[in-house]
């Protein structure tokens, strides 16, 4: 992954949640932060800003610890909030907190204890996320709209479709012409298309605990790619095109998909290019600025404390933009 990141000269990395196994962090001083993040992702090509969401395993520890600025002080690559927006001009990324949507974590948690601070009352929390997301999508002028969450909406893996997200989130994404929904949770790599809209479902969950079997998908036309092993995904975005690549752990390309927008004349001049890696580790809006070198500008940060913390991260125009998704 590090070699691929260096070759692509990526701009930042996105983690799709479950950042620390098996039960998140104990607190901000938990050595697991260094052991599972700082001391692991040491490759020069990965020394970029990482944008993360929380997964269900993160909620089994001190969920608020992962949101603390103290972790960013320990490792400036780290950035995690529950729900926020990354505005990259031609593309806008909407990170949402999907764990509270799952009924079973509340009704049948078994022996697990979840850190629901800031989430209760649950119905109000979910309603705020959905209302703010819909408002932000309506107002967005970005060429490409991309939503990132931990849980699947549609998946052929062990966890399969998430009923609550199919009911509550999917209609909002389809109504507002979202191009991509990217998630982790299922420990596989997959690409599923939609028969009802241009929306593509991309799972980058191959960071650990792969080779689990359990494939279950009946519509062969919708299933574009499925890989039960470990790997990661990259994304390259221009004004006219999105290119997705899935890789195995050796950096071999397993699947490539492109979507073009606009005329051939527009495609001839790609303009600004963004690149990133997506990986899976085991809105009343505040504003976070990014400096020209891609680091957080803490002087530009302000926070409005409401039912949720929602932030807008503004990224100035850059010559290129690579995304690297990991889980």
UniProtKB/TrEMBL annotation:
Alphabetical list of InterPro entries matching this protein: Acid_PPase (IPR024927), Calcineurin-like_PHP (IPR004843), Metallo-depent_PP-like (IPR029052), Metallophosphoesterase_PAP (IPR051558)
Cofactor: Fe cation
Ranges where the Calcineurin-like phosphoesterase domain occurs: 8-188
GO cellular component terms listed in the entry, alphabetical order: extracellular region
MF terms (GO), sorted A to Z: acid phosphatase activity; metal ion binding
Keywords: Glycoprotein, Hydrolase, Membrane, Metal-binding, Secreted, Signal, Transmembrane, Transmembrane helix, Zinc
Pfam families: Metallophos
UniProt subcellular location: Secreted
Domain of life of the native organism: Eukaryota
Major place of residence: secreted
Substrates-to-products reaction catalysed: a phosphate monoester + H2O = an alcohol + phosphate
Entry-linked SUPFAM superfamilies: Metallo-dependent phosphatases (SSF56300)
Segments passing through the bilayer: 267-289, 301-325
Enzyme Commission number(s) from the entry: 3.1.3.2
Family, per entry: Belongs to the metallophosphoesterase superfamily. Purple acid phosphatase family.
PANTHER family for this protein: PURPLE ACID PHOSPHATASE 4 (PTHR10161:SF34), TARTRATE-RESISTANT ACID PHOSPHATASE TYPE 5 (PTHR10161)
Name of this chain's protein: acid phosphatase
């Amino acid at each position: 992954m590090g070699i691929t990141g260096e070759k692509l000269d990526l701009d930042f990395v996105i983690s799709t949640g479950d950042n620390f196994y098996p039960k998140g962090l104990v607190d901000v001083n938990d050595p697991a932060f260094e052991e599972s993040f700082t001391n692991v992702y040491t490759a020069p090509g990965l020394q970029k800003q990482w944008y993360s969401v929380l997964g269900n395993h993160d909620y089994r520890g001190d969920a608020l610890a992962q949101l603390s600025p103290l972790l960013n002080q320990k490792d400036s690559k780290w950035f995690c909030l529950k729900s926020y927006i990354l505005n990259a001009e031609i593309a806008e990324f909407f990170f949402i907190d999907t764990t509270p949507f799952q009924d079973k974590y509340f009704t049948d948690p078994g022996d697990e204890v979840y850190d629901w601070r800031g989430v209760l009352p649950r119905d109000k929390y979910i309603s705020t996320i959905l209302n703010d997301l819909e408002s932000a999508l309506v107002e967005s002028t970005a060429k490409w709209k991309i939503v990132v969450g931990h849980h699947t909406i549609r998946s052929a893996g062990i966890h399969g479709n998430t009923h609550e997200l199919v009911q509550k989130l999917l209609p909002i994404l389809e109504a507002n012409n979202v191009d991509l929904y990217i998630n982790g949770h299922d420990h596989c790599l997959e690409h599923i298309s939609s028969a009802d809209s241009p929306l593509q479902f991309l799972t980058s969950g191959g960071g650990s605990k792969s080779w689990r079997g359990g494939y279950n998908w009946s519509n062969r036309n919708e299933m574009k790619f499925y890989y039960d092993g470990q790997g990661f995904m990259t994304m390259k975005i221009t004004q006219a095109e999105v290119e997705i690549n899935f890789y195995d752990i050796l950096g071999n390309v397993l699947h490539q998909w492109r979507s073009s927008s606009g005329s051939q004349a527009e495609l001839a001049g790609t303009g600004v290019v963004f690149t990133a890696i997506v990986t899976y580790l085991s809105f009343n809006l505040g504003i976070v600025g990014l400096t020209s070198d891609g680091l957080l500008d803490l002087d530009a940060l302000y926070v409005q404390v409401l039912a949720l913390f929602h932030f807008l991260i503004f990224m100035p125009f850059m010559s290129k933009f690579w995304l690297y998704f990991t889980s």
